[in-house]
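Hi all, long-time lurker, first post. I run a small reading group and we've been trying to get comfortable going from sequence to structure in the token notation. Rather than ask abstract questions, I figured I'd post a concrete chain and ask someone more experienced to write out its structure so we can walk through it together at our next meeting. Sequence below, copied exactly:
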Amino acid sequence: MSTSRRSFIVALGSVSVVPWLNAQATTSEAVETIKKIVGQADPRVGRVTLDIAPLVENGNLVPMTVSVESPMTSTDFVKAIHIISEKNPLPNIVSFNLGARAGRAQVSTRIRLLTSQRLWAIAEMNDGSFWQGHADTVVTLAACTEDVLI
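-- Answer (accepted) --
Happy to help. Here is the structure in token form:
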């Protein structure tokens, strides 16, 4: 039985992709992660702006900024900002703890994204309420693959 080089490469590629597909977080895992953060609270939409490029060439270093509308006073401030990924192997990308002395409820960082997906930003306020915002981005070159390949 003769195997062409093309069919061998296709077969090899499909074998290496299967573990990668199984390691992606699912939307339900992202929802479960959000539920762990908010508990029984119902996060409201608004006050949170997640700024990320709609098209990203390389998922290894993706700049993003999250800002929350808050006066940041001793009686009204953001306690934490959580970034949740829909398709990364670990849905909870990062959590930032803030306080009234932070001055502004804004954080900037660079993250890694496995593939095109939706990201959520959850803001936890000092009064126990939660606010959320989301953004979608398309990633042309995947990241996070070395952690999940066999």
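A couple of things your group might point at:
Strands lie at 44-45, 48-52, 55-58, 62-68, 78-85, 92-97, 106-111, 117-125, 130-141.
The longest helix spans residues 5-23.
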